[in-house]
C-alpha cells in the first residue's frame, strides 16, 4: 500500500532548495520518493520569468546528486510545476509530493493519492485543438489509473503543464505542410491552457467528446472544470500531468478537497473547501488547526468583462502591472486571510478552469485531529 | 440639527465626476453641502500619480460651476483626500460627505458626525517634528469641536492630509537660517505622515505631549493610533483634517465604527468592525445587507520586518511593483471578499496608523434595518 | 501672409500650463493664435495614462478663460496631441504651434506652414478599414489645402489622432446590424493607427487607392509613410489632423525637415535630418546651435521580429515594462544625445509610420543663422 | 608571454550558456583559460533579480563539468560579474575573458592585459567605510600586479564586486559588539559601491588616503574614478576584482581604452573612446569596423539633482519603473546607436564612478586593421 506525503518548504530565493536537501540528507525524505513538485517562485509569472527555470535546474541537480541519475532524465519523470509571482502576502514556497511504498499502516478509509503521467510530444499543429484535448484527456486517465483512484469524483485537482507553439516550432510545422493554429507563443499558450482544461474535463468525464469543437476553446466559457489547473510553457513538449485525489487504496493521513470559486470575491468557496476537510474558519482557521494544512492550491482570473459584481475593475487596462499579477495578489490576500498563512499557491491564467471570472481552490490537510 | 449623508459614487476615469454632477443637477445633493471627499483613483499611488490632481481639478471646477465661487477658494475649504491605486479587485470610486442643516428628524440616539478643519501653513522647518505634531493635534481638536462630538471615544476615523517639504521649500528655509529635517521630499512625506499620526493620537489624547520627542517619529512604532489615516503631499501647505465620529447632536441614519488590524491577514478585525455595526459576515455580508454600507476605509502597510506570521514576503524587495501597491492589492482582496464589494478605500503608508505591520479599518453604514 | 511660430515649453506636472499662461498674459502669444499643441506628458503612454486627459482639460480651461469661449468647443477646434511617457532622458514639455496673420515680413523663400482639419465622426464599423483610410486621406488633403502648401513633397510631418472602437461603440454598431472589425479597444487602436498611416500615405499620394485592401492593414508592412505620426484614442470620434510643411506662402523663420529611421539604431537618420536644416552634429549639435531648434518629433517601434541587426532584444517579452516604454526610452536616449537636449517628442506605436522596425524623425528649426 | 582573448556570446535566456559550451567542446576555448565573465542578463537589475544567480549557477556547473572541479571552488576563483537589465535595444550577452600562456607571437607594442584578485572577507562593520576602501585598494593593486601592468595609466577599467551587509550579518556584528554602518541591505549596497569606487581611485593613486574620510562616501561626489565599475551584492563576502588594461608584457591583438561620460547625453565621450581605438563614428561605426569590437562597458546614473542640462527628468520619481532601468535604457540607446550594436554592457548605480550624473565608457577592440 502506498502512502502520500506532502512537505511544504520555504525558500530564501528561487535557487534555494536547502530545506529539501536537508530533509533528504536527514533521511526524512527519500530522493526516489519525490513524485512531483508544485511551488510559487518570486518572479513575475510572465514569459520573462526565469525564476521557474532557475528553481527547476536547482531541483534537478539536487535530485541528480542524490539519485546518481542524469538531470536530463529526471526532468522528464518528475513534474515540477511552478507558478511565478508571490504578489502581496504570498510567501515563496514549494510543496514536495512524495510517494512511498508499504511504509505506513492504513488509518483512514481513504487517503491522498497521487498519480503522474507524461504524454507523447504534442505536434505543433495539434496544440490548442481537439487532438491536444484528447492527448491531455488520455494522459489524465493514465495518471488516475496509476494513482489507483477508482472513481472520477475522488479526483480533486489535476495539474497539467502543456506545451505551446514557439515561433520555431510553428515554422517547422508550416515547412512540413501543416497548419498550426497560430505562430504567436502568447496566443498559443492561452489556447494550450484551454486545451488542457478541456482535456481534464474530458478525462474526468465532465464533458463528452461531442460537447465541443476546436471553436469552443477560449470561446465557450460555459465549458470549464473546477478541478483543472493548467499552465503552459515553451519548455515542455509533452503534456505533464499530476492528479491528486482520495483513494481507499492509499495509506497516509492526508486528504484533499476542492471547490469552485465563482468570482474573485468568493470567500464562500474558500470557507466551504475548508469545511469539507473539517476546518472551521470563523473567520480564520486557528493557528493550531492550520498546522494540519499541507497545501493550498488556487486558480484565478481577472474578469475579462471588466467588472466584478457590477463594479469596474482596472486590472485589464493597467500598462504598469500585468493583470495576472493584480488578480493573484487580490485572491491570495483573501485566501491567506481565511487560512492565516501566506504559503499558498495562487496561479492566474484560469481560462475554463472553474467558473468564468472565478477559478477554484483545493486544499490538502491531515485527517489527524480533524473536527 | 445637522445631518450627515455619504454618497459612494463610481467614476469611468479620474476626470469623471458625472455622477456627482447628476446628483447636484437633480437636487439630491446641494453643492454647498459637500463637506469633504474621500476617494480611490486608478493611479499608482506614488509621487508621479497625477490622477489625484486630475480628479481634484475636475471636482473643484464642478463645485465652482455650481456654487459660483472660485475653485482656488474651494480647494482650501473642502478637503479632497484621494488615494491612488485600485490594485486587484478595488473599483475606482469616491465618497461624498455631505452636511445639511435641519433637514431630517432625529431617529437614532447617535449618528454620523463630520468635522473638517484646516491649520495654518506648516513652516518647512517644522515638518515631521513636534511642532508639526502639535499643529495637527490642534487642527484635529478644532474639527472635533466643529463636529460637535463630545467624547474622544466617539471619534472613529481622522483623515489628515499633511504638507511635506519640497526641494524648493527646504532651500528657502535653509536660506532663511532654518534647519529642515530633510530636503528629500520622499523622506519628508514619511516623516509628515508620522507627524500626522502622532498629531491624531495627541489630539485624541491617546498619547500625551511628553510621551514622545522628535526622535520617536518613524522609530518608536509602539506609538500609534488606530483611528489615524494620514496622507502627505506637496500640493498642500497646511494640515487638512476630516474627523468622522458619532454624536447625539446629529440626525441621520449613518453610524461609523473602527477596529485596528494587527497584520495583513487580520480578517478578525474586518469581521469585528462589521459586527460593531450589526453585520454578520459569515463568511460574507449578504448582498442585501451590503447596500447599508456607504464607506469602507482601510489603512495598511507591508510589514517592514519582511515577514508575516513568520513567513517571508517579497513586497519590500520588488523592483517591479512598489511595495504599497502590493499591500493595497492584498488587503483589498481580503476586505472586499468579506464585504462582497470592491468599492473600498484601501490606502498604504500606514506608519503609526494602527499596529506596526497592520493598520486599521473603519466602516460607515446605515442603522436602518441593522441586525 | 501667415506666420507660424512654435514655442517649446516645460511643465512641472501634467496640469501645469503656467508657462503658456504667462506668455498669453504677457502678450507674447495671442490665445486665438494657438492652432495646435503637441507634447510629451509623464504618464505611461498606455490605456490607463490619464496625464493626457489632465493636460488637455487644463489647456482647454486656460484657452477658454482667455478666449471667453466654452472648452467643449475649443477641444473640437484645436488639436491637442499628447504622447505619454518621458522615459529616460526625456523632459516633459509641449510645443505650442501658433499661426498669426500679417505680422511678419517675409525673410525666407519658404517657411513653416501649419494646417489643421477635423473629419466627420468615423462610424464604428469603418474604424481600421478602407473607409477609415479614405476619411483620413481627405482630412489630410483639407489640412494641406488650409495650410497653403502647394506641393506634396513640402509636407514633412502629418500628425493624426484617430478614433478607435470602444466596447460600447462596437455593441451599438452590432445592434444596428453593422460589423465592426473588433470589439477589443486595444486591437482597434492598432488598426486605427494603421488606417491613419495609410490615410496619410494616400493623402500625400505616396500610395494609390488600389495599392491596398482592408487586409493590408497591420499585415503589409512594406506600405508605410515616413511622414505619418498617428495616435489613436477613445476620447476622439473624428480624425484630427495637423499638417506641418514648408511653403512660400508663409512668412516666419522656421523650417521643417524629416527623415525615415530604418531601425532603432539609425543615428544616420537623425544626423541627416539635422543636416537638412543646416546643423552639424559632430557628434552633437552645439549648445549655441541647439537654441535654433524648436521641435523634435520622433516615431519608433520595438522591432516585432524580436531582433535588431541580428541580435535578440527583450522588449516584447517583458511583463514588467511595456514594450513601447522600452523603445521610447532607447530611441530618445539616442536622439537626445545627438541634439544635446531631452525636450524631444518620441512616440511609440509606429506601425506603417516609417520603415518596419524603425520610424521617422522630423525637426523644426529657425533658419536664422543656419549654416 | 600571456595572451588575452575576449569572446562576446549571446544567450537565449539566463540559463543558456550553450555558445560557451560549444566553444569549449570545439576546442576554441580551454575551460581552464576562462579568467572572468562580464555580462548582461535580462532581469530587472534590482534586489529581486535572480537572472544573475541563475546564470552564475549554470556557468559554474559548466566549468565544473569541463574542469572536473567543484563549482563551489570555481565561484571563488573566476569572477562572474553580471548586470541585470537589458532595457530597450540592449541584447543579452556575456563576454568571456580568457588568458592563455605562450600561445601567440607578439604583434603589437602593447595588448590587453587581464588581472583578477579576491580579497579576504570584509567584516560587516567595515562595509562602506575606510577599511573597506583600503581592502578594495589592496585587491586592485594585487590584480594589477598579477596582470603585469606596470603603469597605473595603463589600467582602463576596474570591475569590483563588493559585499554588502545583510540583516543577518548586521545582527551578528551587533551581537559581537560591533557597529555596522547600517542594517539596511539597500543602503549598505550603495555605500559598498561607494567604497568600491574610492578603493579603485585609491588603488590607482587617483586619490590619496587623506583625501577622504568615512563621511566622504555618498557625500563628496567630486571624488570619483572614471575607471571604476562597481557592483555590490549579498552573494559575495569578499571583494572580487577584475582589472583590464594594456601592457607590453602581453601578446594578443586586443586593446582597451576608456573615457568619462559627463552626463547621460555625452555622446562625445563615446565617440572619443572609439577614436582612441582608431574607430571613426561619423556618425556610426561601420558594420565592417564593428566586428573589431569585442566588448563595450558603460556605467551611468540618473542625475540625482533631477535635471539634465537644465531640463527636468522624471526618472527619480517614477513609481512604475526603477530609475536605474530608465537610465540604462537611455544611455544604451545612445551608445548602441553610435556603435550599431545592442550587445553592450550598460550598468547603473554609478556613484563616484565617473562624473556626478554621468559615468564612463570602456571599449575593447582588436588592433588588427585599426585605422
From TrEMBL, chains A, B, C, D:
Enzyme superclass (EC): hydrolase
Matches recorded under InterPro entries: AtzD/Barbiturase, AtzD/Barbiturase_RUA, AtzD/Barbiturase_RUB, AtzD/Barbiturase_RUC
Known EC number: 3.5.2.-
Taxonomy, superkingdom: Bacteria
Region ranges (RU C): 254-371
Molecular function as annotated in GO: hydrolase activity, acting on carbon-nitrogen (but not peptide) bonds, in cyclic amides; metal ion binding
Catalytic residue list: 161, 231
Residues that bind Mg(2+): 301, 350, 353-355, 358
Residues the entry annotates as binding substrate: 52, 83-84, 193, 231-232, 328, 347-348
Keyword vocabulary terms for this entry: Hydrolase, Magnesium, Metal-binding
Annotated spans, RU A: 1-103
Keyword NAD assigned: no
UniProt family annotation: Belongs to the cyclic amide hydrolase (CyAH) family.
Protein role: Cyclic amide hydrolase of unknown substrate specificity. Catalyzes the hydrolytic ring-opening of a cyclic amide. Does not act on cyanuric acid nor barbituric acid.
Assembly: Homotetramer.
Record remark on domains: The monomer structure is formed from three repeating units (RUs) that share the same structure as one another. The monomer and the active site possess nearly threefold rotational symmetry, to the extent that the active site possesses three potential Ser-Lys catalytic dyads, but one of the 3 active site surfaces varies in composition suggesting it is involved in confering substrate specificity.
Name assigned to this protein: Cyclic amide hydrolase
Organism of provenance: Bradyrhizobium rifense
